[in-house]
Design goal:
Elements: H1 2-34, H2 41-48, H3 53-64, H4 72-83, H5 88-100, H6 104-117, H7 122-134, H8 138-151, H9 156-168, H10 177-181, H11 187-197, H12 201-209, H13 220-232, H14 236-245, H15 249-252, E1 274-276, E2 282-288, E3 296-306, E4 312-316, E5 321-336, E6 340-346, E7 352-355, E8 361-374, E9 382-388, E10 397-411
Antiparallel strand pairs: 1-4, 2-3, 3-10, 4-9, 5-8, 5-10, 6-7, 6-9
Helix pairs in contact: 1-2, 2-3, 3-4, 3-5, 4-5, 5-6, 5-7, 7-8, 9-11, 11-13, 12-13, 13-14
Length: about 425
């Protein structure tokens, strides 16, 4: 008797094991087909398991997009939710269907459920954002766009233009305040887009000035972008004040009509600082040398190649009036047909306002100065540039070294 009972139990266990194995196999095959990206995938999944949730959801979604929606779409999406209550895409699919047929309140409740299932994957975020945008819930839309931009930066091409539209509209602009107060990872990319594409300069100014930096100065890249836009708009006073606002305590020590004329501070190539480059055949640098007051000086070396050197300059914001440019120079075996000169011009004109003596040959440190006048009209911005003078190509061959220090511009009182 006991042997028979054991045999029955053993057979029952084998039967249960077989059933479980078959169910596992069926479920595995159904999930396999559901994961394939082919037209027949969903049908194949449902043949193996009639309640495979992903396949039900996709089929219901496809039928709901008919015009008008196929009546079977609703039951398929509901079945998908019953089969997997955590499938946010099924809730969203049914919500979109109900919204189309006018059941907005019911649709909204489903989207709230989908939003609460988290963590939200990009397809869910995108469809949730689209739903809330249709409901004019821009706050919820922006929250989902922000998550999309953080998890899938490639969405920037689609979302940055929409964000900029909100920023340009005074009525919707306050919606961006949470991002200004606590900038997310994608904010710098959006700001760069806005600088180039914003119709109104006011929009860019707001995005720059209202950003919370927790007491820190603007990053150089952000400041450069904003200054480039101000330069394009020829808003010189705003550009100058913006540049001033980005200087730290050490940089402020170099302020004057010529900034960092001692060349002791690092050169940033931003705003009203020096712009410096080393074209082929030259080395342009600031290094220590003897008989300087601060330790460093500007050094230019020419290796004998032909070069139209104009690669060291600074924008100036001088008011109309009389001035004097002065500085110190040293040359060391500098062979150049017409030498190096400092020249000062209005940025919107070719006429020279001031021109130093030519620097050529060999000489120890000596001072130079030149008087000039900034005209009352049509000269809102100037630039001071070091130039290798020449009229024909052969005159642009140069070899040797030149040093400059203590450049300054002072106002001259008129009698």
């Amino acid at each position: 008797m006991q042997g028979a009972i054991k045999a029955i139990k053993g057979g029952g266990l084998l039967l249960i094991a077989g059933i479980l194995a078959w169910r596992t196999l069926v479920t595995g095959l159904a999930d396999y087909y559901a994961g394939q990206d082919t037209p027949e995938a969903d049908a194949g999944a449902l043949r193996w398991r009639s309640d495979q949730p992903a396949a039900l959801s996709r089929q219901g979604q496809a039928l709901s997009e008919h015009d008008p929606p196929d009546p079977e779409a609703e039951s398929l999406l509901q079945a998908a939710i019953w089969a997997d209550p955590t499938n946010a895409l099924a809730y969203l699919g049914l919500a979109e269907l109900w919204q189309r047929v006018g059941f907005t309140e019911k649709a909204t409740r489903l989207v709230v459920i989908a939003d609460g299932l988290g963590p939200l994957r990009p397809p869910v975020l995108a469809r949730s954002a689209a739903f809330w945008l249709q409901q004019n819930r821009l706050d919820l839309t922006l929250a989902r766009w922000s998550m999309l931009l953080r998890t899938r930066p490639e969405n920037a091409a689609r979302l940055y233009p929409a964000l900029l539209q909100l920023a340009e509209n005074p009525l919707t602009r306050p919606l961006l305040q949470p991002f200004l107060a606590n900038p997310p990872e994608w904010w710098d990319g959006f700001f760069a887009y806005a600088v180039v594409n914003a119709i109104q300069l006011e929009t860019v100014t707001l995005l720059y000035q209202r950003r919370n930096r927790n007491g820190a100065l603007p990053e150089a890249a952000e400041q450069r972008l904003y200054l480039d836009r101000l330069w394009k708009e020829e808003r010189w006073l705003e550009a100058y004040l913006t540049w001033l606002g980005g200087l730290d305590a050490r940089q402020q020590s170099g302020l004057g009509n010529v900034y960092n004329g001692s060349f002791d501070l690092p050169i940033t190539n931003i705003g009203f600082d020096w712009r410096m480059a080393s074209p082929r055949g030259t080395t342009v640098e600031t290094i220590e040398t003897y008989n300087t007051r601060g330790g460093k000086a500007l050094h230019i070396n020419f290796n004998g190649e032909r070069v139209h050197f104009q690669h060291l300059y600074q924008y100036l914001y001088l008011e109309p009036g009389s001035y004097q440019l002065q500085g110190r120079a040293r040359v060391d075996s500098l062979h150049a047909e017409r030498g190096l000169r400092w020249r000062l011009r209005c940025t919107n004109a070719k006429a020279v306002l001031a021109e130093s003596e030519p620097f050529v040959g060999s000489d120890d440190w000596r001072s130079f100065k030149v008087d000039f006048t900034v005209p009352e009209r049509d000269c809102p911005l100037q630039w001071l540039r070091l130039e290798l003078e020449g009229r024909v190509e052969l005159e642009f061959e140069a070899q040797g070294d030149a040093w400059f220090d203590d450049l300054s511009i002072s106002r001259v009182e008129e009698n």
